[in-house]
Amino acid sequence: MGEAKRRKKEGAPAPKEKPSRKVSVLIGLAFLLVAIVTGLYYLTRPPAPGSGELPQVSADTPSFPQELDRFGVSVGPEDAKVVVREFADYQCPACARFAEAAQRLKEEYVEPGKVRFVFFDLPLRQHNNAVPAAMAARCAGDQDQYWAMHDRLFAEQSAWETSDNPQQMFSEYAEDLGLDTRRFNRCMDSELHLEDIENSRQVAMQLKVASTPTVLVNNIPLNRPGWAQLSAVVERELSR
To answer: What is the helix (H) or strand (E) element at residue 26, kind and residue range?
Structure first.
């Protein structure tokens, strides 16, 4: 029956077919996915070095007291124009996430001699394995493998953070790194670097640093620690 004849006979247009519920759900999910991807882009895109989004400090903000750097562990030229300082806890999840940005900083800015990086131990009281982890990094440093152990501790954080015997795992990491494990274990057992770690913590207290990770580029604290903001602020400071 033709449409005209059907209308004449029935007096109404043919009802339109409604899309199936499955198709509607798929369309809704597609729009949601687009919104999530767009949101992630705007949240993670690197700000321009001159962008107003980047953290600033007033001109009269005092410089970081460089004499305190001796209580941290440093890498890079002493006369670098830009110094990045991190106060962190090896058992802190947010610090483990920032560790990738710190490693990239060392590769792209520290190794070419543009930036100096100083890491301060700030083990939080609620993290039972934070001090032993800081000790493991410093004991590895006695054999010139501080940064290798530093990176390994953050990469393997989920494996040792709740362990009742983290030192056994740290000893295995030391062996993997080719260290003299007997010397490493003696260093750990004697708590050789406990005072160094406490001195580093005292620097944080003196500067009223209470959260981890706290990251400063020269004297500018980052409010969104991560590679996007870190690299943008570093570039801005290098260009000044």
So the answer is: helix 21-44
Beta carbons within 10 angstroms of residue 15's beta carbon: 6
Contacts of 211 (CB under 8 A, 6+ apart): none
pLDDT, tens digit, 9 for 90 and up, residues 118-172: 999 999 999 999 999 999 999 999 999 999 999 999 999 999 999 999 999 999 9
The fold for domain 66-239 equals Glutaredoxin (3.40.30)
Question: CA dist 129 to 101, 169, 173, 190, Å?
Answer: 23, 12, 15, 16
Domain boundaries, the chain: 66-239
- Report the side by side order of strands in the sheet with 214-217: 73-75, 115-121, 82-88, 214-217, 220-221
Cβ-count burial of 56 within 10 angstroms (0-12 exposed, 13-18 middle, 19+ buried)? exposed
Residue 82: partners with Cβ closer than 8 Å, 6 or more residues away: 109, 114, 115, 116, 217, 218, 234, 237, 238
**9 is written with which tokens?**
């006979």
What are all long-range contacts of 179-187, with beta carbons under 8 Å and residues at least 24 apart? 179/140, 179/143, 179/145, 180/143, 183/142, 183/143, 184/139, 184/140, 184/143, 187/135, 187/138, 187/139, 187/142
Q: Please tell me the distance from the alpha carbon of residue 230 to that of residue 186, in angstroms, as a whole number.
A: 37
Say what the pTM is.
Answer: 0.78
Which residue type is seen at 222?
Answer: L
